[in-house]
Write a structure and sequence with these properties.
Helices cover about 20% and strands about 35% of the residues. It has a four-stranded antiparallel sheet, with helices on one face. A three-stranded antiparallel sheet has the order 1-6-5.
């Protein structure tokens, strides 16, 4: 039985939710998100909007997949509520000689030791802010999945090198440094 799904999702102040055309629409001060309720797995649960909360229940309490999607859908609704009220952010930094990041319009330009600059289109709904130094930046948005996917795309451009300690890192990420060749 899902422990995450048991608890209803409370709607914070300024956030409203409604079911429109087989989608849960969550509106808040930062924007609006839609969660589809007619997909294969989302169809295994019932989503009901009450006064100040959203309740998710499985359609068939005996079905293992239905119970699994109960907790998943509850967490997706919770992420949507948190996203439209507070938003999500991923902080990243780069280590390496000459590494730097800059934002030009809706493009992120990364100089990470290749013969050319890596230019990435910033997806709609996201913003990238350069921190105090050109090697630190933050990705912000209301969709948790979209923020994480874009951060992962950037992280894969120059993965952390365990020998030299260079690369693109998440804040707080630690890599195990390896010893080089011995003579």
């Amino acid at each position: 039985m899902s422990r995450a799904g048991k608890y209803p999702v409370k709607l914070t102040e300024g956030v409203s939710a409604a079911i429109v055309d087989n989608a849960l629409v969550v509106k808040g001060p930062k924007g609006e998100l839609k969660l589809a309720l007619d997909t294969k797995h989302a169809g295994l649960v019932d989503v009901v909007v009450e006064a100040d909360q959203v309740v998710v229940t499985p359609k068939d309490a005996e079905d293992k997949t239905s119970r699994a999607m109960w907790g998943t859908m509850n967490r997706n609704v919770r992420a949507a509520v948190e996203g439209v009220s507070a938003g999500f952010a991923k902080e990243m930094y780069m280590k390496g000689v000459g590494y730097k990041a800059s934002v030009s319009g809706n493009k992120l330009v990364l100089v990470v030791g290749f013969s050319h600059d890596v230019i990435m289109e910033i997806p709609a709904g996201l913003s990238v802010e350069i921190g105090g130094t050109p090697t630190e930046f933050t990705i912000r948005g209301i969709d948790k999945c979209q923020v994480g996917l874009f951060a992962d795309k950037i992280h894969k451009i120059r993965k952390a090198d365990p020998y030299k300690g260079k690369g693109i890192f998440y804040k707080g990420e630690k890599i195990r440094r390896k010893e080089g060749k011995k003579k």
